From TrEMBL:
EF-1 is composed of four subunits: alpha, beta, delta, and gamma. GO terms for molecular function: translation elongation factor activity. Probably plays a role in anchoring the complex to other cellular components. This is Elongation factor 1-gamma. One of its GO terms (cellular component) is nucleus. It comes from the Eukaryota. InterPro entries: EF-GSTs (IPR050802), EF1B_G_C (IPR001662), EF1B_G_C_sf (IPR036433), Glutathione-S-Trfase_C_sf (IPR036282), Glutathione_S-Trfase_N (IPR004045), Thioredoxin-like_sf (IPR036249). Residues 1-85 form the GST N-terminal domain. Keywords: Elongation factor, Protein biosynthesis. SMART domains: EF1G.
Amino acid sequence: MQTLYTYAENWRAYKAQIAAQYSGARLKVASSPPAFTFGQTNRSPAFLNNFPLGKVPAYQGDDGFCLFESNAIAHYLSNDALRGSTPQASAQVLQWVSFADSEIIPPASAWVFPTLGIMQFNKQYRFPDELAMTFMSCNLITGMFQRLDKLRKNAFASVILFGTNNASSISGIWVFRGQELAFPLSEDWQIDYESYNWRKLDVESEECKTMVKEYFAWEGEFKHVGKPFNQGKIFK
């Protein structure tokens, strides 16, 4: 039996499941304990041995063949009717898959998902001319936290909105398990993080100690920002 590892209701995993249903491929979905626990199973040595990036969806065949990336998995599970029975047809399938990823999914995430209540508007699409009203800026933080809900057991953050209407900015301190950013581990977590600049702090530096004290207490000079404190939110 072929296995697809993912977390529950991961829309990217649906590609593989739909392809398997059309092609008749037998596919077992491991999306809940004990078979799979997101944030634990995909960080285990055994999982990382097969999928070094720890990303899901991830596919493993009964012959040990492994794949990650949703489009590659869907392609592998498809039949000729889905993949294209000629080189020309296969190229056209790849063309439209790539078109959907680059031209349809990004605006759909920004335009359709908010109307369904799945996510708040993202400043990268809805507010291209910088942050306007402070309540809009605050919604960006709230929306990001909502989309990162499955990360709460493995991360802590204090994110602050600085400034006033038409002159605001967002900055924060994040603490993760491990030494790298967790966002690349899931495509769904990448919606927001690419809109911000990230740098790793030196825990031994005075700068880091001052910033941690100010961000956790929500008070201080915040010299690196240059704008007054407006409001803050805690992710835990």
